[in-house]
């Protein structure tokens, strides 16, 4: 197991990784699994087009990292500005997002650009966009469509040129159906949709990512670079990764710190021995309690096949 050489299309190297915030520590985007290689092609296609992008994926799958890559590839001259919509102030969300004019409210002697203004000429990354209040959703759409924004308290709009890259860990269309997301904004975002699969569905990325993080942390902590034993590799590939790549990064970081030999062993990973088996056990137990006849028949068939395999 080793990472592809620099220049391989599955490994994107970020030239200015040092400029990224601490929460995004990657120097490269590791895409090795066939599913993420395919995604990579889609990303390259969309990045240079003047379309908004919606990245859907579970927490920790790498949505912000991908958004940063899209911004770099787009070569837009402005900044990449990242905002988590659930962090907007309940009372001053509009001013935070769109800015305010001088004198708009008490204690506002001068005007402020807001997040949108700071991203002028660049990319506004809105994480968890489903958490944006409905009223701001409609306002945001109008700004993006007209290229004009009204700061709170302003008497005239100002021109803005912002590319929106939004992320969501939930299906936006379901939120639309529930009446809590603006259908027109969802439509606007649907031109460039990217689905980042959870790590458990792209097993081919697990060991390359583990090796990559090991390299990063060994270098940063000035520790010798250990290998990963076969048992540890197998455990990494069998784990469910509910926290996705972020969880893998933390697990590898920890393993490196507690590793006392040339290789990371399974017990250094501090992972449950067989999480999937546990889940299967729970599902079967539930089925035995509440399953209907068809489900029980399907279960018997599966158990029969398991028996057959055991018998050799
Ligand atoms: N393909 C990848 N290659 C290298 N590092 C990655 C990759 N994907 C994610 N990471 C790293 O995993 C961590 C989590 O990534 P990121 O913050 O982009 O996830 P996210 O989906 O935006 O999470 P959240 O939904 O919680 O905001 C970061 O440290 C990031 O650098």
TrEMBL record:
Give the GO terms filed under biological process for this record.
regulation of DNA-templated transcription
One GO molecular function term? Answer: DNA binding
Sigma-54 factor interaction domain location is: 29-257
**What taxonomic lineage is listed for the species of origin?**
Bacteria, Pseudomonadati, Pseudomonadota, Gammaproteobacteria, Pseudomonadales
Q: Which InterPro entries match?
A: AAA+_ATPase, AAA_lid_NorR, P-loop_NTPase, Sigma_54_int, Sigma_54_int_dom_ATP-bd_1, Sigma_54_int_dom_ATP-bd_2
- Which keywords annotate this record? ATP-binding, DNA-binding, Nucleotide-binding, Transcription, Transcription regulation
Coiled-coil ranges (or none):
none
Question: In its UniProt entry, what is this protein called?
Answer: Sigma-54 interaction domain-containing protein
Matching entries from SMART domains are given as: AAA
